[in-house]
Specification:
There is one protein chain. By secondary structure, the chain is mainly alpha-helical. Helices cover 43% and strands 10% of the residues. It has a three-stranded antiparallel beta sheet with strand order 2-1-3, with no helix packed on it. It binds zinc ion (2 copies). The site of one zinc ion has 9 residues, from helix 1.
Length: 99
């Protein structure tokens, strides 16, 4: 059986464990401080997590943000390549003008 790597948090919003966003292992079921049930939380934002299996570790919001960042990085790389090309053209233009 695959190990459940999800993170749990205390479901009691008044508990210091919830306030400090303390993380518990998936095997643990109850908060050692207040005794409330531990629920799966997002590994990134500690927000509520839908139970979609042991590999589902981050919430929809963080997943969207992560793929958004990835898209931006690719976009930025393209822009860098484009500006490097125009710099090369500018340099070539300067060299041509010198002659
Ligand atoms: Zn608690
Ligand atoms: Zn999240």
């Amino acid at each position: 059986m695959a190990k459940d790597k999800r993170i749990k948090g205390c479901s009691n919003p008044l508990c210091q464990k919830a306030e400090r966003k303390s993380k518990f292992k998936a095997e643990e079921n109850f908060c050692p401080i207040c005794g409330s049930e531990l629920v799966f939380v997002c590994a990134k934002c500690h927000g509520p997590l839908e139970d979609e299996g042991p590999n589902h570790k981050i919430c929809g919001g963080c997943e969207a943000a992560a793929s958004d960042r990835k898209a931006k990085v690719i976009d930025g790389g393209k822009k860098m390549a484009a500006s490097a090309g125009s710099v090369a053209l500018a340099v070539a233009g300067v060299l041509l003008r010198k002659k």
